[in-house]
Every structure is written in structure tokens, then in C-alpha cells.
């Protein structure tokens, strides 16, 4: 066996730095793209980034509170701030106040205390009894239910602060919450010696309570979703797609700085300018390619989803990324990247592009296939119109889908869609009345 050198030619695909950059640009959202361009401007002294029109309006809105962008981004009171503002009225001793502040800081965004008291006691060098007393103080604050350690305790705290106490509801939540929530009501009614109508009354009362006391308080600004493309009817009544240039920054080449550098006559400086201009040109080309890809993609979506644009998402047709990719002559991954974190403004609202894609549900041969989104919308309508005292079972829903809409799907598929819609089973939807 001996070592030797051989020379051979072979063809293989390789990802250049420019190609990788083009792929990255396609999947970036508007905010990510702006951050990426500003990073490139730090590396290229000739590259100028002009702020998008939306950013300019948002900047002006900071000086004018009447601007709608500023109003949307108004900061709400935080849950921690709301709770701390109530402490002076309790007139606590220093140590008790520190314990209460520690507990408030340990609450999650829903207002629950998920950390075991024994762990907090060890961190604070306090006894578990002191932490229990501090927790009761937190639970006495507004909003009712804050500081609970689980859902049952949260509901019980709210029931105890009602103007008119309900002994049966408090008893159920304290001792029989799991069978009550699972609607094992016939057995529970016998144990408690009450009628099903009484359990239904308690159910309606508990449903009026807030399971997440901290949900109305936030430390974040509400997100502002701006569409990447706009779909609207043209003057001829047909649908048209417009690229929303307002949300994207503009690229520019600093000719003045280029001329000053070139005037030095330095050959290395000239080579530097050529290299930076090549990067600028490729970046501009990639951005234009990104724009055209989005427009072409949206044109296919509009063509395939005309009923959806007319009547809303309930009329969404089955459409996969593979089908669109084949029509565009690109890889499926390109379509996946193109729709990532992108939004379209439609007649029925601003929605994510991914929502236009939906798998097909089985249908009769005489009818067109229905999308899973459309089937879910029909299931919601059927359940909304059902008799609450005799709710539709999954099999009955499957039968109605077949009889009224020609959609033949199994009971298990109906159950899967119902669970995805977070709709409980018929047994848990059933309502009772006093007999």
C-alpha cells in the first residue's frame, strides 16, 4: 500500500455566501430584515439605510399622542405595580412587607404562585408559617384570585369575595372540583343531595369567574402587526396584490463618500470600493428577488383562494405548500421560508400567510374536497346552533357534515378537529335545568 496524489474533476452543488444571504432574506420578517440591513450598514460604510415610512410615522408619534400608532402601543399597568400600589393600605411591619413583596415578585403573568412556599421560605430565610401568612395577605389584594396556587384555589378565593356567598359553589370547588369539572354530575348530585339543575347553576356561576386574574395586566406593549402584502379589489373588480413598501427600509449608495475615497488615488481604496459596491448590488438584488417571490406566491394564493377572499376563512380551500411550490417552479422549502412571519391585509383582516394553507378533509366524489379549516368552521357552527340540553355527539356531527355538506369524515376526525378548537365533548357541553 502506497500513498499517491491524484487529480480529478467532479460536479457538486455548493452554497455560496451570497446564496445563503438570499435564503436568509426570504425568511426574515420585516423587523428582522431591518435589523439585518442595519448590521450590514455597519460593515459597509457606503451603504445607507433609510428608515421605513411606518418607522418614521411611529417616531413622529412619540411626539404626538394623537397618532394612532402611539395609542396602539400605549403601556398598560403591570400586575406587580398594581399589587404593590395596594401595600400602603395594609400598614405592614417591615419584615411582613418584605415577605409580601417577595411573594408578589414570584407570581407568574397569570397571577398564580407556581413556586412552592417551602422554596421561597428557604430563599428568604423565613419560616413556612410566615410565608403562609404573607400569601394570605397577597390573596386579599385586588384582583380577586391573585396569589392562588392552582385553579381550584383561584376560583375559591373569588367565590369567597362575592357580595352574596354561595355555600354550595364553595363546597364543590373546595372538595369536589375534579369530578365537577369533568361533569360527572349524576354521581356528584347523589353525593351532595342536590339536583342537576343546581349543579348547572353553580357551573354558570363558576364560568363567570376569571381563571387568570393577571391576564388584564401586562408589562409588554401590544404587538403591532403590519402586513407585508395587501390584497384588494382593483378598479376592474378583480383581485390585485400590492407589496407594502412602506414597512421596509430603503437601500442607498453614498456617492459623496465614494468620490472622496476615490479621489485619493489609492489602488487599495479603489479595490475596497469595488468590493463594497458588489456587496451592495447583491444585497439590492436579493431584496428585489425577495419582493418578487412574495408577489408571485401571493398571486398564486389569491388565484386558488378566491372564495376565501370573498367569504372569509370559512371558505378556505385545501392547498398545500408543495402544490404552490410546483406551480411556482421552486422547492417547497422556499415557499415555507417565504410565508414565515409574513402577513397579508385582506378584506376580512390581517392574517398570517400560513393560514391560507390547509390540508384536505375527505369528501364525496361528487363534491370538491373541503379544507380542514372549512370543516372546523362548519363544526363550530353546528355546535353553536345545537340544543344545549341535548348536545351533538361526534358521530352526529360527522353525520350532519355528510348529509348537509357532502363531507365524509370519520368520528375520530371530528373529535380531533373539535379538540383542536378546544371545544369539550358533548357530555361536558350538556346543560341541565331544574325539574
Automatic annotation (TrEMBL):
Pfam families: Sigma54_AID, Sigma54_CBD, Sigma54_DBD. Residues 69-257 form the RNA polymerase sigma factor 54 core-binding domain. Keywords: DNA-binding, DNA-directed RNA polymerase, Nucleotidyltransferase, Sigma factor, Transcription, Transcription regulation, Transferase. It comes from the Bacteria. Residues 271-431 form the RNA polymerase sigma factor 54 DNA-binding domain. Belongs to the sigma-54 factor family. This is RNA polymerase factor sigma-54. It comes from Geobacillus uzenensis.
Amino acid at each position: 500500500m502506497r500513498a499517491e496524489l491524484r487529480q480529478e474533476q467532479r460536479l457538486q452543488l455548493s452554497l455560496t455566501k451570497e446564496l445563503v444571504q438570499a435564503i436568509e432574506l426570504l425568511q426574515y420578517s420585516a423587523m428582522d430584515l431591518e435589523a439585518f440591513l442595519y448590521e450590514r450598514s455597519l460593515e459597509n460604510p457606503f451603504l445607507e439605510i433609510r428608515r421605513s415610512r411606518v418607522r418614521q410615522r411611529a417616531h413622529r408619534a412619540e411626539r404626538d399622542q394623537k397618532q394612532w400608532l402611539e395609542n396602539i402601543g400605549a403601556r398598560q399597568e403591570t400586575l406587580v405595580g398594581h399589587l404593590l400600589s395596594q401595600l400602603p393600605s395594609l400598614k405592614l411591619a417591615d419584615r411582613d412587607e418584605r415577605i409580601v413583596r417577595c411573594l408578589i415578585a414570584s407570581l407568574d403573568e397569570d397571577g398564580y404562585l407556581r413556586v412552592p412556599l417551602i422554596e421561597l421560605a428557604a430563599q428568604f430565610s423565613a419560616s413556612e408559617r410566615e410565608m403562609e401568612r404573607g400569601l394570605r395577605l397577597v390573596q386579599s389584594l385586588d384582583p380577586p384570585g391573585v396569589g392562588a396556587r392552582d385553579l381550584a384555589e383561584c376560583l375559591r378565593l373569588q367565590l369567597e369575595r362575592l357580595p352574596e356567598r354561595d355555600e354550595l359553589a364553595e363546597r364543590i370547588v373546595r372538595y369536589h372540583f375534579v369530578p365537577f369539572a369533568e361533569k360527572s354530575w349524576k354521581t356528584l348530585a347523589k353525593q351532595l343531595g342536590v339536583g342537576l339543575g343546581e349543579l348547572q347553576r353553580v357551573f354558570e356561576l363558576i364560568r363567570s369567574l376569571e381563571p387568570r386574574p393577571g391576564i388584564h395586566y401586562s408589562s409588554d406593549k401590544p404587538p403591532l402587526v403590519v402586513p407585508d402584502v395587501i390584497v384588494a379589489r382593483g378598479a376592474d373588480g378583480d383581485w390585485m396584490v400590492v407589496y407594502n413598501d412602506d414597512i421596509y427600509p430603503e437601500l442607498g449608495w453614498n456617492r459623496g463618500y465614494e468620490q472622496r475615497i476615490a479621489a485619493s488615488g489609492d489602488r487599495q481604496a479603489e479595490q475596497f470600493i469595488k468590493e463594497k459596491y458588489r456587496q451592495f448590488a447583491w444585497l439590492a438584488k436579493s431584496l428585489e428577488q425577495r419582493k418578487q417571490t412574495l408577489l408571485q406566491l401571493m398571486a398564486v394564493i389569491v388565484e386558488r383562494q378566491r372564495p376565501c377572499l370573498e367569504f372569509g376563512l370559512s371558505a378556505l380551500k385545501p392547498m398545500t405548500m408543495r402544490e404552490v411550490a410546483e406551480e411556482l417552479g421552486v422547492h417547497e422549502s422556499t415557499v415555507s421560508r417565504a410565508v414565515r412571519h409574513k402577513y397579508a391585509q385582506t378584506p376580512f383582516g390581517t392574517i398570517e400567510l400560513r393560514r391560507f394553507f390547509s390540508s384536505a378533509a375527505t369528501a364525496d366524489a361528487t363534491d370538491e374536497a373541503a379544507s380542514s379549516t372549512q370543516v372546523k368552521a362548519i363544526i363550530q357552527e353546528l355546535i353553536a346552533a345545537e340544543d344545549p340540553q341535548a348536545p351533538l355527539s361526534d358521530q352526529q356531527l360527522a353525520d350532519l357534515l355528510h348529509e348537509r355538506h357532502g363531507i365524509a369524515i370519520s368520528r375520530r376526525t371530528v373529535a380531533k378537529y373539535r379538540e383542536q378548537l378546544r371545544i369539550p365533548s358533548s357530555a361536558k357541553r350538556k346543560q341541565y335545568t331544574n325539574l
